[in-house]
Amino acid sequence: xxxxxxxxxxxxxxxxxxxxxxxxxxxxxxxxxxxxxxxxxxxxxxxxxxxxxxxxxxxxxxxxxxxxxxxxxxxxxxxxxxxxxxxxxxxxxxxxxxxxxxxxxxxxxxxxxxxxxxxxxxxxxxxxxxxxxxxxxxxxxxxxxxxxxxxxxxxxxxxxxxxxxxxxxxxxxxxxxxxxxxxxxxxxxxxxxxxxxxxxxxxxxxxxxxxxxxxxxxxxxxxxxxxxxxxxxxxxxxxxxxxxxxxxxxxxxxxxxxxxxxxxxxxxxx
Length: 270
Fold this sequence. Notes:
Blueprint: E1 7-10, H1 14-25, E2 33-36, H2 40-50, E3 53-55, H3 58-64, E4 67-70, H4 77-84, E5 93-96, H5 103-108, E6 115-120, E7 130-136, H6 142-153, E8 156-160, H7 166-174, H8 176-193, H9 198-219, H10 223-229, H11 236-246, H12 249-269
Helix pairs in contact: 7-12, 8-9
């Protein structure tokens, strides 16, 4: 799928690094990966750690590569697109991982009929356990989608969705690691409050979340079914669940996702 294709990153942040790790692990040679990154220290790190080509000129990287991955902050999207517009010939797909920026907005900022694919990944991609949703722009081909899926499946799992649902994806899985980490921290705090050391409490909390997620994915049961199996009548779990529901645990999570979705939509408008 990626044989003889050069992959260029516009922006060398954490998500770009995760994808570079995945590409290298998937057999893409370092010589076929290039990164445009303005920060000198970051360029040096990526070159030393992964032996990929680096530079500070977006246009040069875009010209030299066959697939372009736009991985900058949404706030500098316009500037980044201006710098690669001439290099994005009709044979080169642009894969964007920018939150809130629609394919239509990207297409209107570029010349001709750009082949845009939009992806919303998340940070567990750094350990090859990411979740990414993918949608096609107006001019993207089936091969473009296949290339995007192949790249992001090197660092996790992918789902194809309609673009109108990507804000929901952003609020759920894009921002989701922050919610889960806060939950793990709260579990750990509860353990410390009740006498456990911080190391043991955090280890127990993190492994519980990891193992439960794996159990859910492998059994494909509904979460409520698995929860019921650990919730004995009159037992400790139902007492804990009752307290969480009194404090509107699920409502708080839903409200948090809703707020993140709303912010994603604001970013798109701006």
